[in-house]
Specification:
Length: 831
């Protein structure tokens, strides 16, 4: 194409990620001087990141989010590209060199690029479509904005919607996760024996299933769906399976695979097998001026459904067409997948397991933490690796998979830091051509070049390169590479300290402004403070929490800003039922309370009654519609085991009965729980009081822990953890009385409420702020803020209301409406 005249007309059919990326690469190589560029896209938008649709579905992003929109409409004008948006190309005449659109528009070309992508594969099953061929009401694919908006509208228009997702691959699990986040009852149906069978072996798929089920999503494998069931009005009522069983649903989402969109090419006489057949320069077979790129193309017998190969194809095609490298050739891709599946990090490359008796196979799995790692070595070369949960070695394994680093003799060191460099230490040594962000095709060299060209902050690098703007699994490595490239000169990004992305204020600034303007509803905050007054779905829950922290019961309760747990004051379980935990202050109960709990368990057929790690009794498996009656029959306050709030105070028996007790831990624990019960906090807050340093109540590893040390003195520890992270708390102070514990405890909790990031546990907050700073401001009052903290925590305490009292006056008609269908829970065996 080196002799292509400057007036050549370049037509790109398809305005998706492949088509738009190819045009970007062409423009970057001087294509504006070489071509008059026209694009045809059947959606009425600019180019957007389809990977982000799962974030839109889960409420973490909006349709107009800048991370979703890759090329807004203004980009086309600014780059001299004519875009015909919302008009589908329907016919290609290769001899007249024209493409005809659905509107009747005819566009001629000298060079044609077909980038029509792929379509959802809808299996042949009864009830899936209307008589005219359209999908039935309540049936969706998951490929575009229209699909996503349709699901969201149905989910938000009705309470207690249930959904079945057909297909347990990456897309299906992302759809299930998004719908579950919207409060729907969700079941995934997958015909193979384990989830993500294309990327994971049976062990990995089994562990992924456990992680998915923890999110409250039902999983049904080895089940083939034969029909979508509908009522007389045409509404979806469920699905049926080959064995005759059924599953109720109001919505069906089909994610059973994709098929290249090659119908126009086939009708025009191009060679089409699974996809449009192309050579190493992405040229269609037997054609001199027609090319294909992306998911619609078939190269050397392979089609690719991942973005990384598409980016490689786009670069090759741009170099060929612009003449910057007329001999450029695409030889196929060794696919490596690194992504976040429903919140779970996954990396996979090559084969899933050993294929010959001589293959070396190393496998590690830890079900409790959801960690799975495996690798396959053949003839001294890495031919496959899978990581789930902990993917910190993905960068190193990718290099090994590409043959760029020798393999250590101890193969296990490839999965753990037992001789290979740590992620942070090796960031500077990674090769420049290593692809760091698979979602947007960003290499280490791209990141380094961006830093060297003047980007001063991590967010600026991400904005310019789009690294980390897809699934987000690469953000840690991106940060390490950018820091290494900046050589210590990376500037602090002010937006990193904003409480929510859409409001350019730190949390203290936002609190002050909300107080000053008397803003009491989330919608008011968006209208007055958000950039362009736009609502941001991901900001609703943190803003609701902040308003409750500031105003207590006087905030304006907008139900749409709350998670399902906060709307019904119970903890949703994986089958759609709820967990109820009545308060037992300090873990102390009475025979009367125990009788009430036993009576409620009998009356409502509670499947599981369990003692919690926080010394409470948990009633699991209660139906949503039964919650108000359960609370009424219990006639006990809420134990707050469901929200981002002060949870429980765990105690030992202290001086009452223990021979080693140095302080009355039980009485102090009850006093702490009575004072701070139900306080809204940025993340859950767990407390404990130990009557002596033997620490039977585990006070040393709680968010706020108190230990009696004798002579009436108490040590106060903060920032401890014993969950997914283990951290001994830092000693804030030693005080002389229980009253002083309550006073200093209130100051710390209020300071944490006002300054911690959303969902930041104290074990992250305390190290970030610094123990010395906390001692200076809370113990020594060096900034003269103690009086204000004491006053505000007292106001919050005075505003406490037991949320279970809401049973007598629901906030909405659907608040406690039935939540069906339910999955059967296993019964505890009689022992």
């Amino acid at each position: 194409m080196a002799n292509t005249p400057s007036s050549s007309k370049l037509l790109v059919v398809g305005n998706g990620m492949a088509g738009a990326r190819t045009v970007e690469e062409i423009i970057n190589r001087g294509g504006r001087e070489r071509f008059e560029i026209t694009m045809i896209g059947d959606e009425p938008y600019g180019n957007y990141n389809r990977i982000m649709l799962s974030h839109v579905l889960s409420g973490e992003a909006a349709v107009d989010d800048e991370d979703l929109i890759l090329n807004p409409m203004g980009w086309y004008t600014a780059n001299g590209v004519t875009l015909h948006a919302g008009d589908r190309a329907v016919a290609l005449d290769r001899f007249a060199k024209t493409v005809t659109c659905e509107s009747g528009r005819v566009v001629d070309y000298d060079v044609l690029i077909i980038a029509t992508g792929s379509n959802t594969f809808f299996p042949n099953m009864d009830g899936l479509r209307e008589s005219d061929g359209r999908l039935a009401r309540g049936v969706f694919g998951f490929r575009n904005i229209a699909d996503t908006n349709g699901m969201l509208q149905m989910a938000q228009a009705h309470d207690d919607v249930s959904a079945v997702v057909i297909g347990g691959g990456l897309l299906g699990l992302e759809a299930a996760y998004g719908l579950r986040t919207q409060g729907l009852t969700v079941n995934v149906v997958h015909s193979p024996g384990h989830l993500m069978n294309q990327q994971l072996d049976e062990r990995g798929g089994s562990m992924l299933r456990s992680e998915i089920e923890k999110l409250g999503v039902g999983v049904h494998t080895s089940m083939r769906t034969t029909a979508v069931l509908r009522d007389d009005a045409g509404r979806v009522t469920g699905v049926s399976f080959v064995d005759g069983s059924t599953l109720d649903a109001d919505m069906v989402v089909v994610t059973a695979g994709i098929r290249p969109n090659a119908e126009m090419a086939r009708a025009a006489g191009l060679v089409v097998e699974r996809g449009i057949v192309v050579d190493d320069q992405m040229r269609c077979e037997d054609e001199g001026s027609v090319y294909a790129v992306g998911e619609c193309a078939q190269h050397r017998g392979e089609t690719y459904g991942l973005v990384a190969p598409v980016w490689e194809q786009s670069v090759i095609l741009a170099e060929v067409l612009t003449g910057t490298n007329p001999e450029a050739a695409y030889v196929g891709s060794r696919t490596t997948t690194q992504l976040k599946v429903a919140g779970v990090d996954v990396a996979a490359m090559g084969v899933k397991g050993p294929e010959t008796v001589d293959d070396e196979f190393v496998q590690y799995y830890e079900p409790r933490s959801g960690t799975y790692k495996s690798l396959v070595v053949r003839d001294g070369k890495l031919i496959g690796a899978t990581l789930m949960g902990d993917i910190s070695k993905a960068g190193y394994l990718t290099q090994a998979f590409d043959g760029k680093v020798p393999l250590p003799e101890e193969r296990i060191s490839m999965l753990f830091d037992l001789g290979t460099p740590s992620v942070a230490a090796s960031a500077a040594d990674l090769p420049d051509d290593l692809q760091v962000c698979n979602c947007n095709g960003v290499s280490k060299g791209d990141l380094v070049a961006c830093v060297h060209s003047g980007a001063k902050t991590l967010s600026a690098v991400c904005a310019q390169t789009r690294a980390g703007k897809g699934c987000g699994s690469c953000k840690g490595l991106v940060a390490d590479i950018v820091a290494a490239a900046a050589g210590g000169e990376l500037e602090v990004d002010p937006s990193a300290d904003w409480y929510v992305p859409c409001i350019p204020m730190t949390k203290p600034e936002l609190i002050a402004t909300i107080r000053e303007r008397d803003l009491r509803a989330v919608s008011q905050v968006f209208a007055e403070l958000a950039t362009d007054a736009k609502e941001d779905a991901s900001a609703k829950m943190p803003l609701a929490s902040l308003l409750r922290t500031i105003w207590g019961p006087d905030w304006v309760d907008e139900r749409g800003a709350l998670f399902i747990n906060d709307r019904v004051h119970a903890n949703i379980q994986r089958d759609g039922t709820f967990s109820v935990v009545p308060q037992m202050k300090g873990g102390v109960t009475t025979p009367e309370q125990l009788r009430k709990i036993a009576d409620v368990a009998d009356k409502y057929g509670v499947p599981l009654v369990k003692v919690t790690g926080g010394q409470r009794i948990d009633l699991l498996g209660i139906k949503k519609e039964d919650l108000p009656q359960v609370w009424g029959d219990l006639d006990m306050p809420s134990g707050f085991a469901y929200g981002k709030s002060m949870r429980t105070v765990k105690t030992c028996v202290g001086t009452d009965f223990c021979r080693y007790g140095l302080g009355d831990s039980t009485s102090l624990g009850i006093a702490i729980e009575e004072r701070f019960q139900g306080l809204e906090t940025p993340a859950k807050l767990k407390l404990a009081v130990a009557g002596c340093p033997r620490n039977c109540s585990e006070a040393l590893c709680k968010d706020f822990g108190v230990v009696a040390v004798g002579d009436g003195r108490w040590e106060i520890y903060i920032g401890g953890a014993a969950g997914a992270h283990v951290r001994k708390g830092d000693l804030l102070a030693t005080v002389e009385s229980p009253e002083a514990v309550l006073e200093l405890g209130g100051r710390f909790i209020q300071y944490y409420r006002e300054n911690a990031k959303w969902l930041e546990r104290t074990y992250d907050f305390v190290p970030r702020v610094g123990l010395e700073h906390l001692q200076a401001v809370l113990v020594r009052d060096e900034e003269d803020i103690v009086a204000g903290l004491d006053e505000r925590i007292q106001t919050a305490v005075d505003g406490y209301r037991d949320p279970w009292k809401e049973r007598s006056a629901p906030k909405s008609p659907a608040q406690f409406a039935p939540s069906l269908p339910l999955l059967p829970l296993p019964q505890v065996p009689v022992r």
